[in-house]
Structure formats: C-alpha cells, structure tokens
Amino acid sequence: KYKAVIFDLDGVICHTDAYHYQAWKALADRMDIYFDETINNRLRGVSRMKSLEIILEGNMGAALTDSEKQYLAEEKNNIYKKLLENMGPGDLSNQVRQTLNILRGAGIKLAIGSSSKNAGFILKQIGLGGYFDAISDGNNITRSKPDPEVFLMASEYLNIPKEDCLVVEDAAAGVDAAIAGGMDCAGIGDEMELKLADYHLKNFNDLLGIVLM
Ligand code: G6P
Ligand code: MG
Q1: ipTM given for this complex
Q2: Where is this site: Important for catalytic activity and assists the phosphoryl transfer reaction to Asp8 by balancing charge and orienting the reacting groups (predicted)?
Q3: Phi-psi region of 107 (alpha: psi -120 to 50; beta: other; left: phi over 0)
Q4: How confident is the model at residue 58 (pLDDT cuts 50, 70, 90)?
Q5: Which residues on adjacent β-strands are paired with residue 167?
Q6: Is 10 a catalytic residue?
Q7: Ligand 1: which residue has its CA nearest to atom 2?
Q8: Angle subtended at Cα 122 by Cα 117 and Cα 124, rounded to the nearest 5 degrees
Q9: Between 149-158 and 172-180, two packed helices, what is the crossing angle to 10 degrees?
Q10: Does 134 contact ligand 1 (Cβ within 6 A)?
C-alpha cells in the first residue's frame, strides 16, 4: 500500500522532549517567566521561533524586537545542543531499530520529516547518521508544521508521490501537517490529541502491520 514512510524525529524515533523542556525552562527561569510541562507540550512539532513566541505569550513577547528574539532562541538552542551531547545509540530503542530494519528490508523507503534544525546531529548521536533515504528538516523549510512543507519536501527528496507515503507523528501539529499535505498519517502517543490520524500505533512496531499488509 505504501512505498515510503516519513518519520517525525522528536517523539517518534527518539525522545528529546525532556531536553527541550530543560533548555526552555533554563531560559524562562533566567527571564523570570512561568514555564511548565503543559506549556512544553504545546511546543511539540512547532519550530524554535514559534516555540519562543508561545513561551513569551502574555509576558513581554510584544515588546521584543526580532533580533532580541533571535538571541533568546539561540540561547535556548545552545543549552539544548549541550544536552544533546548526552544522547547516544542507547537512546534508540531496539523496537524502533528493528522495525526500521524490517521496513527497509521489505524495500520501503524511509525518510525523516522534522521541524528541527538539529535533526542531523540527533540522528548522528543515536547512530542513525546516513541511515535514512532522505532527510527533510528545519533547515530546508520556510514554514513549520502544521504546514505540510516538511513532508512534501521529504516525498520530493524520495521521489515518491505523496499518495504513496505514510507519515508517522506524535504531535497534533504534525498530524495536521500530514492531512494538509494530503498524506496518510499514523499517530503514536495520546489517542485523543491525535484523533485525526488515519491509524493509531500502540507500539512502534504496529507500523509493520499497516505498511506490510
Ligand atoms: C521538533 C520538536 C519541537 C522543536 C522543533 C524545532 O519539531 O518537536 O519541540 O521546537 O523540532 O527544533 P530545533 O532543534 O530546531 O530547535
Ligand atoms: Mg514530534
């Protein structure tokens, strides 16, 4: 049914949520801005700049210039990148690795579709540098999820029509992006939040039943 699978990275292939949280929290604390896990959940799948805007909502967001915002986003990213150095091949679960290998062995093309500009570094850290057939990430897009650009670019890089691609997502913004791009989508995580997805994965390897049926 599908010729390719396009995976979101953060929250699907590996888990960087806690590092994003710690880095945003450090910035928010320094600025004396309230930040908690609930706000952090709203940042999933959203670009760095848009995330900063969400954090600054109702605080001093409107009073800051673009270059001040750039500076703050960079400050967060420097903390975040330092934390990513803690990641290694142990942060890739056996189930994810095995599922990817089985799909690949069956001739399915595999791509990444992530809003992150750190996707390449994260993949290298978890031992998947050079593994995917295509990587579409925060560096090749101008509009982040829920815009479909990142997934459409992935299907273009793979040279596989979007109708033949399945997107795997953990965030509502990502499911919305897949739908906006006219692609089928499998959600992994909170079923209520991802209710618009075509399939729901209880476990990552449920993907095999969907793609290889
Ligand atoms: C992913 C994460 C988001 C993050 C975005 C940008 O989509 O789920 O939480 O804001 O990437 O990440 P970056 O590494 O470029 O700051
Ligand atoms: Mg995600």
Answers
A1: 0.98
A2: 114, 145
A3: left
A4: confident
A5: 6, 185
A6: yes
A7: 45
A8: 120
A9: 60
A10: no
